[in-house]
Amino acid sequence: MTEVRRLLGLAIALLVVWWAEATSPPRNLMATTTMTTTKTSVACEELRPLGVKNNTEEEEEDEEKEEEEEEKGTISVKSRVKRAAEDGKSPRGQSPMNFKFDRAPHLVIAAEEWPPHVYVTPSGDGTAAISGPMAQLLESLAVSINFTYTVVQGDGYWGAPQENGDWNGMIGMVLRKEADIGLGPFGMSPTRSQVVDFTSPVFLEKYRVLVQRPRPVPNPLGFLSPLSWYVWVGLLLSAILVIVTTLSAARTLDLQEPSTVLHHVWAAFGIFFSQPVTSVVRGNAHRFAALVWISVTLIVMRSYSGALTSLLAVKTVAITHDSLQDVIDDQNIQFIFEGSTALTAYMQEVQSGIYKDLAETSKGRSVFFQASGMTGAAYELIPDGSHAMLVEEVVCKKVYSDHFSLTGRCEFYMSSNSFWPLIFAMTVQKGSSLLQPINARIQALNEFGIYDRWANAEMPNMTACIKTPTKLTIHESYALKDLWVVFLLLVGGNILASVFFVTELLVHWGYPQLFPPQSQY
After folding, report:
1. Mind listing the pLDDT tens digit for each residue in 389-410?
2. Does residue 421 sit in helix, strand or coil?
3. What average pLDDT does this structure show over 77-84?
4. How many CA atoms does the CB half-sphere of 204 hold within 13 Å?
5. Helices marked H in 93-209 — which ranges?
6. In angstroms, rounded to a whole number, what is the distance separating the alpha carbons of residues 243 and 250?
7. Tell me, what DSSP letter sits at residue 443?
8. What are phi and psi of 477, to 5 degrees?
9. List of residues 6+ apart from 330 with CB closer than 8 A
10. DSSP letters of 296-309?
11. Which residues, in sequence order, are CB contacts of 187 under 8 Å at separation 6+?
12. Spatial CA neighbour of 435 closest among 80, 74, 84, 96
C-alpha cells in the first residue's frame, strides 16, 4: 500500500509540473522573437534592390489581376486554386487524396465524342452535355474534389502538331488555356507530354485491324482438296507402274488372260474406284501386283472418302487479314484512320520499321474521320470488303456490340494480332495544381476496376462476336456454284462417251471386218 501511495504521489507531482510549464508563457522568448523579427524586416527593407517587390506588393498585384480576370470571366485555374488555398486547403499542403476545395471553383472541360468512352450532346449556348464512362469519371472527380464545370467542344480532334507549330484538337485548347482539363481520354506520347501534363492512366489500350468478316468462296475443285497434288501425282504414277507390270507379266509369261493395254488400264482404274475385276488373274507376279494395288487403293480411297465427307459437311474459311502486316501487303485494301491521333502523328516522323511501311503504303489509300464518326464509317465502308479500319480494340468491340444488337449478325472481324499499345489518360495544363488530386482519385478507381465496369456496360453484346479463331467454320448447304466442276465432268464424260458410241457405230456399219468377235475370259 505504501508503494502504491508513493507512485500515486509521484504521478500527481509530475502532472502539476507539466501543467505549470504548459500554462505559464515564456519570459523573454516572445520579446526576443519580436525584436529579432522587427530588426530582420528592417534590414531586409534596407537591403532590397530597387525594382524588387516585397511579398505584400506581389499579393496586392495578384489580387488586382484576379479582380480583372473575374470581370472578364477568364479566371485561371491557378487563381481558383489560390482562392481555395486561402481557406487553408491546398493540393500541395496535404495528401492529394484528402484534398477538397472549400469554395468550389468553376472549370472548363474540353470534350469530344468517342464511343463508348464519352458521348457529347451539343447545346445551343456553345456548351455541351456529356455521358458515358468518362462523364461518370468527371462527375466523380467533381464531387470528390468539389468543383463545378462547363463542357465545351473544339474542332472534333484529340490533338496533334500542325505544320505551323500550333496544336489542334483538345490538346490545343488546353495548351492555349481555353480549357482547364482535356477529358479525352488521350493516348500518351512524348510529343504531347511536352505541351500538356497527363494524369494517371485511366486504361490501357491497343490497336487492332477491323475488316469484313470472311465469307466462304466457292471452290469448284474442292473435291480434290482431301489429297494434296503430289499425292494425286503419286497415285497416277503408281497406277501406270501397276499397268506396266501386269501387262508385261501377261505378255512375257504367256498367261491365258487379256493382254491388251486398254484391258489392263481399265482393270487398274476399276480397282482404284472399288469396281470388280471381271477377268481371272493368273500367275503369281500378276496376283502379287494386283494385291498390292488393291491394298493401297483401299487405304487411300477410304481416307479420301472420310476427308471429303468432312469438307462437304463443314466449310472452312481462312483468315486473310489477321495482322497489320497482312493489310500492308494487300494492295487492294483502303485504310480507315482516326485523324490527329498519336498513331498518325508518329507515322509522320517514323524512319524505319513496320510503321514506316504503313506510312508509305497508306499514302493515297487512306481516309480519315473524327472519333465520333468512326463507328459510322465502319458500318458504311467495311462491308464492301475493300476497307480495313486501324482502331483501338474497344472501338472494335463497340462496333460488334451495336451491330449485333441491331441485326443479330456478326458481320465484322477483329484481328487476333494487336499493335500500337497505348496508355490513355486525361490532360491538364502544364504545372496545374489539380494534377495530384486527380491522379490520386483515378488510381483509386482503377484499383477497384470501376472504370472498366463502366466501359463494359456500354457494350452489352460484345461477347457475341468477340471470338477470333484462326479459321471460321460456316454450316450451310452447298450450291451448284460449289460443285459445278463435278457436274461438268459428268456432262463432259457423257458427251464424250456419246461421241465414241456414234463413231464406233458408224465404223461398225461401214467396216464390220474391223470388229471380230472377242473371246470371253
Report:
1. 999 998 998 898 888 888 888 8
2. strand
3. 53
4. 6
5. 133-145, 169-175, 190-193
6. 11
7. H
8. -70, 150
9. 320, 321
10. HHHHHHHHHHHHHH
11. 158, 205, 341, 342, 343, 422, 423, 424
12. 96
Contacts of 148 (CB under 8 A, 6+ apart): 104, 105, 106, 107, 142
- The pTM assigned to this predicted structure is 0.62
3-state secondary structure of 234: helix
| Sequence spans of domains, the chain | 222-315
The set of cell numbers assigned to 348 is 509522320
Read off the C-alpha cell for 52: 524588387
Residue type, 218: P
The tens digit of pLDDT for each residue in 113-127 reads 999 999 999 988 889
Question: Which amino acid is present at 170?
Answer: M
Q: What is the number of other CB atoms lying within 10 angstroms of the CB of residue 77?
A: 21
- Residue 179 near residue 110 (C-beta atoms within 8 A): yes
Q: Which of 132, 83, 128 lies closest to 108, judged by CA?
A: 128
Cell numbers found for residue 48: 532590397
| 8 Å CB contact between 208 and 418 | yes
- C-alpha 76/C-alpha 82 separation (Å) is 10
Return the residue matching grid coordinates 464424260. Answer: 493
- Which range of 282-286, 291-295, 415-419 scores highest in mean pLDDT? It is 415-419
Q: Which is nearest to 195 in space by CA: 423, 432, 443? A: 432
